[in-house]
Each structure stands twice: as C-alpha cells, then as structure tokens.
Specification:
With about 180 residues, the protein is an all-alpha fold. Helix content is about 80%, strand content about 0%.
Length: about 180
Amino acid sequence: MKSRQKITIYIVRGLLIALSLAAFVFIFRNALANGEASAEQSYSVTIKVQETVGAINPTSPIATATGESFELLHACVRNMAHFLEYLFLGACLFGAYLSYANRENAYFFFVPVCLLYLTAATDEYLQTLSGGRAAEFSDLVVDMTGAAIGIIISLAIYALVRLIAHGVAKKKRLNKE
C-alpha cells in the first residue's frame, strides 16, 4: 500500500475515533444534566426549530404551534435529538471499527454494536441519577434505532468506498495493459 493511502487511512481512523469520543462525551454530558437544564435546552432547540420553519413558511403548523401542539412538537424534537445523536455515534463508532476490520478480525463486529447498546442503556440509567429526570424505555428504543441506522449508514459508506477503490484499481490495471 502506498504511503499516501496509509496516511489517508490513519487520518480517517483518527477522525472517526475522535468523533466517536466527542459523541460519547456529548451524550453522557446531556444525561447528567438535571431535569431543569435538560428541559431548558430542549425547549430552546424547539423554539429554534419553530423560528427556522417560520422563516421558510410562517403559516406552518410547526411555526405556529402553541399549547398542546407546542408540547407535541417539543416531544418530537427531543426524540429526534436522541435518534440523531445515536445515529451519529453509531456511524462514527462502527465506521472506526470498519477502518480496522479485516478477514482475521471481522468477527469482532459485536464489540462496537454492544458498546452502542450499552451506551444507550447507561445513558438512560444516568438520567435516573440526575434530579428531575427518569429513564424511559421509549428513549432507549429511539437510541437503539438511531444506532442501528448509523451502523447501516457506515456499512453503506464502507461498501461504496470499497466499490470505488476497486473500480479505480481496475481502471489503473486496464490503462497499464
């Protein structure tokens, strides 16, 4: 393998590991926030969503939501936040695993998968230790679904990169002949 390719692989590995660690810190920092701080943060994000949608379509039900409608929007924003943070973690963590995987160690795929699900369970447990919060099974399901889709995305990107690399190598061989 050429040194330029090795450097690229090392950069991608380092980046995926750093992003995974940042996602872990973000998730556990949020899990340890008390109920008041967590609610304030999610309400703030919900209002930003309303403002953004309102700038595009001021008469949208999202932009004009109040009362029960706002609370429903707030619940959707919280669920989407759970989903997206685990999708990101799943894609980065499993991508890091794939950057090291080969035929000899491919059966270790269960390590990042178990780590993702253990993280989701620990996240929910830590919320019980924070004042004014509780663990919710529905959040655990949303977290695990996000992680699973993150894994699928990382597998799709990995397959695409391998396919492109194979095509480039084949083209180089044909040009040499």
